[in-house]
Give the backbone structure.
Amino acid sequence: MDLLVLAAKQMKEKIEFIRLVGNERRVGPTLERVSRHWQGGRERFLFISPHDDDAVVGAGLLIQLAKRENVPVNILIVTDGSMGYCSIEEKDNIAEIRRDETFECYQSLGVPKENIVWVGFPDCQLSLYRGRRAASSDDKAVIEGFTGLQNALTYHLRRIRPTQCFVPTSSDLHPDHRIVHEELIISMFHATGSIWPELGRPLEKTPYIHEIACYCNFPRPPQLQMRTPISMLEKKIDAIAAFRSQKQIEATVNIVKSSGPEEYVRELEFKLYNPREYKHLFEERETMGWL
C-alpha cells in the first residue's frame, strides 16, 4: 500500500485528545492520559441535556469515547419535549414520540436504557421552575413534595454521584439552555452540602463541570479537543437522525457532517470565594521615582 494512503488511513482511524493547560499542550490517545483530575474506576459522566437531543448534538463523540474507556454514562433530560412538534398530527403525543426516539438515539451510542432519565419539566417553561418550592397539585417534576430545577438537579446529582458533568454552554441562544446552566451550578453547591437531606446523601466532592457546544459558540475558547475516526462521526450522525420527528434538525446534522470527527469541551472553574485571592492586589509596593 502506498505510504501516503496508509498514513491517511491511519489518521482516519486515530483517536486523539488534545488538552490545553496554561502554556502546555497535552496530547494522548485516551481521556485518562490528558485529564487533569482523572479518578480511575470512580469516573462517572453525567450529561445534563435541557432537551432530549442536546447531549448527542454537542457530545455524541464524547459519549462514545467515554464508553470506550469503560466510563459509565448517564443522560439526564430536563424537559418533557411537549413543545417539539413539527406537525399538527403529532401535537398531542409528541412527548411519547420523542421519548422513543431518545432511547433509540442514546442506546445506539452504548448508553443503557436505565441510565437515560427524564426529569419532566414542561418544555419551554423552565423560567417558571427556577429554584425550589413546595409543589402544588398541578406541578410537574415533583420530588419529595417539592418542585423546581434546584430541587431536581440536587436530587439527581446525589443519586447518580458523577465525577464529571457536561452541560450546554451558557452562551447558547436558547433560554432553556441558559437556565439549566445557571441552575446546575448552584445545584452543585447544594448537592455537596447538608441542605435538603430528604434529597439524598451529600456528595463527598464537587463534580468537575464542563460546557459542550450545541448551537452557539463557547463564550471563551475550549481547552479540550477530541478527534475520532470517521466511523464514530457516522455513528453520531445516525444517532441524531433517530429524532425523526424533529424536522428542523437537518441543519444541525449538516453542520456536524461538515465539521468532521471533532468535538470540543470547555472546563468551568467552580471556586468558592476566598479573600486571599485578592490580598496581593492591595499590598504596598515600592515605586521608583522618575530620574
Remarks:
- The mean pLDDT is 92.
